[in-house]
Write a structure and sequence with these properties.
Layout: E1 2-8, E2 11-16, E3 26-35, H1 40-45, E4 54-55, E5 59-67, E6 79-82, E7 85-86, H2 92-95, E8 106-107, E9 119-123, E10 127-129, H3 136-139, H4 142-154, E11 162-166, H5 170-181, E12 186-191, H6 194-202, E13 207-210, H7 216-224, E14 229-234, H8 239-248, E15 249-257, H9 269-278, E16 281-284, H10 296-307, E17 317-322, H11 326-332, E18 342-346
Parallel strand pairs: 11-12, 11-14, 12-13, 14-15, 15-16, 17-18
Antiparallel strand pairs: 1-2, 1-4, 3-5, 3-9, 3-18, 5-6, 6-10, 7-8
Helix pairs in contact: 4-5, 4-10
């Protein structure tokens, strides 16, 4: 089969490799689309892959081509999205159902070969079926959509409150929609790009605030009546928005950091003291799994994409690029700001 294989820094090659054999308990998936995740970019462009050569790719959709011995829940022809984490199921965290925290895990597309290829072989439980009404493009967004929902779970989210979403990227827009689906009273999106704020409102947000605009906090205070937000979800991993989360939180709020920080972060005493004075609860969120594996997050995405309540906007996708040109896709990320959305690698083009 053909695959995009990483051999070193800025060295990803479209080449012939051996097609994976179907083992007992596993399924062979004919890949349609794979999204380029932010975590893949340094693995290719900065040489941070765990080892080389390797086939990356973990946000993928496709159809079941073959099933191994003992597989009962899937059959050839089923449309599926890939579930990349393969927990050990033996450690203390796995025994508690905290699969995201497993220390002895495999991960399809980073620890083992992934979906920048024509085919990928995964355990039966690592493929979730979706209906014909759900496009393969949406299928490639299952993983980020589950990451967003897991953030709500970590914040002990309940409907009826006000919600702030910091960061208007894909995960931010998904988080906003989950908050709305599960009963938010009012939702506001915060970003520095007006187009993202407009997209947020099209998808159901009540307001959008450009944090570069002078005096935007006065508008925020008017929106919340000066009390702040009951739930604050930081999805950008940005130093500024991580600090802003503390400022936006209401008394006894729930604050969740979904975004992954890229730089060291320090708080001045008055900033950090907000957690004491407001008595808000701060938590993190990592990946998207719960018991029984892989978790209801994945079933919810399949259901709500199917009903249309979890909306998908064409602007989520920046470009679709054939697998044969995967090297050109990663070249795009070398120019800051050049990629405005998700790049999907098309394994069938």
């Amino acid at each position: 089969m053909k695959a995009g294989v990483v051999h070193g820094i800025c060295d990803i090659r479209y080449e012939e490799v051996e097609k994976p054999a179907v083992e007992p308990g596993k399924v062979l998936i004919k890949v349609k689309y794979t999204g380029i995740c932010g975590s893949d970019i340094p693995r290719v462009n900065e040489g941070t892959a765990h080892y080389t050569p390797i086939i990356l790719g973990h946000e993928f959709s496709g159809t079941v081509a073959e099933v191994g011995e003992g597989v009962t829940s899937l059959k050839p022809g089923d449309r599926v999205a890939g579930i990349p984490l393969v927990p050990c199921m033996k450690c203390e965290d796995c025994q508690k159902g905290n699969y995201s925290l497993c220390k002895d895990y495999d991960f399809i597309g980073s620890h083992s070969n992934g979906s920048y290829a024509e085919y990928v072989c995964v355990p039966e439980k690592n493929a979730v079926k979706f209906e014909d009404t759900v496009s393969f493009e949406k299928g490639a967004f299952f993983e980020p959509a589950t990451v967003a929902l897991h953030g709500l779970e970590r914040a002990d989210y309940k409907g009826g409150g006000t919600v702030a979403i910091l960061g208007g990227g894909t995960v931010g827009m998904m988080t906003m929609q989950w908050a709305k689906i599960f009963g938010a009273k009012k939702i506001a999106v915060f970003d520095i790009v007006d187009e993202r704020l407009e997209l947020g409102k099209r998808l159901g947000a009540d307001a959008g605030f450009n944090t570069l605009k002078e005096g935007f906090m006065d508008e925020v205070d008017a929106f919340t009546g000066g009390r702040g937000f009951d739930y604050v979800f930081e999805t950008a991993g940005n130093t500024i928005t991580m600090k802003m989360a503390f400022r936006l939180a209401a008394n006894r709020a729930h604050v969740c950091f979904i975004g992954t920080p890229k730089k060291d972060l320090t708080f001045a005493v008055p900033e950090w003291e907000m957690m004491n004075r407001k008595e808000f609860i701060l938590t993190g969120s990592w990946m998207s799994y719960s018991a029984p594996f892989p978790g209801h997050e994945w079933d919810c995405v399949a259901h709500y994409f199917g009903t249309g309540e979890l909306k998908f906007d064409d602007s989520f996708i920046f470009k679709k690029i054939p697998l044969s040109q995967i090297d050109k896709a990663f070249e795009m990320f070398k120019t800051p700001g050049a990629v405005k959305g998700k790049i999907l690698i098309d394994s069938e083009a």
